[in-house]
Design brief:
Blueprint: E1 4-8, H1 15-28, E2 34-38, H2 40-49, H3 55-62, H4 84-88, H5 100-105, E3 109-116, E4 122-126, H6 130-141, E5 150-152, E6 155-159, H7 168-173, E7 178-182, H8 196-206, H9 210-217, H10 219-235, E8 240-242, H11 257-283
Parallel strand pairs: 1-2, 1-7, 2-3, 7-8
Antiparallel strand pairs: 3-4, 3-6, 5-6
Helix pairs in contact: 1-2, 1-11, 3-11, 8-9
């Protein structure tokens, strides 16, 4: 049988779209040999591998304004705005705890993408478990300037989107026959160049890590190259892409829970609308 990979783009709470598509997959019993996630894509991916339909949106919508989960004040102490320790801690009634046992037993290999602060290159955590899973997810979603670099077994890391925003290249290099990508931006979206002010901030804050500074400043060009190449792969039938049909107006840390629920519902609807075509692609 063909080897199948699922690639999940990041985007903070825009990951509600991804959560909707993934819950559609779970409803249909669709699984992949490997799931590769960046930042919010990795967070959504954990709940997909653990087969917890609805958990991502239950937490993001139901607990968006719980300061134990998301709080800008945490940034004052250079802590992650989204508290992943709280997300993965046991809470009991009223909160769906992460199903570590199902995750551990899954035949799906889960890969989390982060960026090495030391050399400015992507690093890949292959099926981390327990505390290493939480560390990898923290590293993958740690935003420069706001979060302190996360100490991991692969060194100090920050946001995986800095160096590998849409990591279909990992799946290609690993020899997967079928590659499915879930975007959190519409296909036409491209990033603007890094502003001189932001470039100077990178130089000031991370000057002792010049390779990281270069990668961070060049992120928009990297992202746009990936998006262009992915469009070409999709046209050639070498990848299957599910992306929002309309521009996404949800902010990275959107506070309007109605908009978060609506984006999840859009992911469910558009995932369902593309499902028959996806099955054809996987069977071809």
């Amino acid at each position: 049988m063909d080897k199948t990979a699922l690639v999940l783009e990041g985007g903070a709470l825009r990951g509600q779209y991804t959560a909707g598509v993934l819950d559609t997959f779970l409803t249909h019993g669709l699984h992949f040999d490997t799931v590769i996630g960046v930042s919010a894509g990795a967070l959504c991916g954990t709940n997909y591998v653990s087969e917890q339909l609805g958990r991502t949106t239950h937490v993001n919508v139901g607990y968006r304004h719980d300061p134990n989960y998301i709080s800008l004040r945490r940034a004052l102490h250079r802590e992650d705005i989204i508290n992943l320790d709280y997300l993965f801690a046991p809470h009991g009634d009223g909160w769906e705890d992460f199903d570590q046992a199902t995750y551990d037993a899954s035949p799906t290999q889960f890969v989390v993408v982060a960026t090495s602060v030391t050399n400015g290159r992507p690093v890949y955590f292959v099926h981390p478990t327990g505390s290493e899973l939480v560390d990898a997810l923290k590293a993958s979603s740690a935003m420069p300037f706001i979060s302190a670099p996360q100490d991991t077994r692969l060194g100090l890391c920050l946001d995986g989107g800095i160096t590998d925003s849409i990591p279909y290249g990992y799946a290609q290099a690993a020899g997967f026959d079928k590659i499915v990508v879930i975007r959190t931006r519409e296909r036409a979206y491209r990033k603007a160049a890094t502003s001189p002010v932001l470039a100077a901030a990178y130089q000031h804050t991370f000057g002792e890590h010049p390779a990281f500074v270069e990668a961070a400043i060049g992120r928009p060009e990297m992202y746009n190259r990936q998006a262009d190449a992915l469009d070409a792969l999709e046209r050639a039938g070498a990848a299957f892409v599910i992306a929002p049909s309309q521009p996404v107006t949800v902010k990275r840390l959107e506070g309007d829970t109605g908009k978060l629920q609506a984006l999840y519902d859009t992911g469910r609807q558009e995932g369902e609308a593309r499902f028959a075509a996806l099955q054809d692609y996987l069977k071809a």
